């Protein structure tokens, strides 16, 4: 792996770590439930991006499959939380 790619992935992981800390602050301090749901949505998105950067860094396809699973479960959980906030129930 080239030095430039190693530096770029390290920088990207640092940026995602900083962004995740800021999102955690919003998750804790969020005045409304919508803010907290959006913060959780961003956290799974950041986790997916971190796994993808790690896949680039380690040059492995397994990481991209894990990122796909994180995206799938994140979408389903976000939809369930939105439905719960709107209707007060998930299963009708």
TrEMBL record:
Keywords: Antiport, Cell membrane, Ion transport, Membrane, Transmembrane, Transmembrane helix, Transport. GO terms for cellular component: plasma membrane. The chain crosses the membrane at residues 38-56, 63-86. The keyword Membrane applies. The lineage of its organism: Bacteria, Pseudomonadati, Pseudomonadota, Gammaproteobacteria, Lysobacterales. Its main location: membrane. This is Cation:proton antiporter. One of its GO terms (molecular function) is sodium:proton antiporter activity. Belongs to the CPA3 antiporters (TC 2.A.63) subunit F family. It is a multi-pass membrane protein. It comes from Arenimonas composti TR7-09 = DSM 18010. It is found in: Cell membrane.
């Amino acid at each position: 792996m080239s030095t430039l790619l190693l530096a770029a992935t390290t920088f990207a992981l640092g940026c995602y770590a900083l962004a995740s800390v800021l999102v955690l602050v919003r998750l804790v301090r969020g005045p409304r439930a919508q803010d907290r749901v959006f913060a959780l949505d961003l956290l799974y998105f950041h986790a997916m991006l971190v796994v993808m950067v790690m896949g680039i860094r380690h040059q492995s396809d397994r990481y991209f499959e894990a990122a796909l699973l994180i995206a799938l479960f994140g979408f389903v959980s976000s939809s369930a939380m939105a439905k719960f906030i709107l209707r007060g129930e998930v299963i009708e």
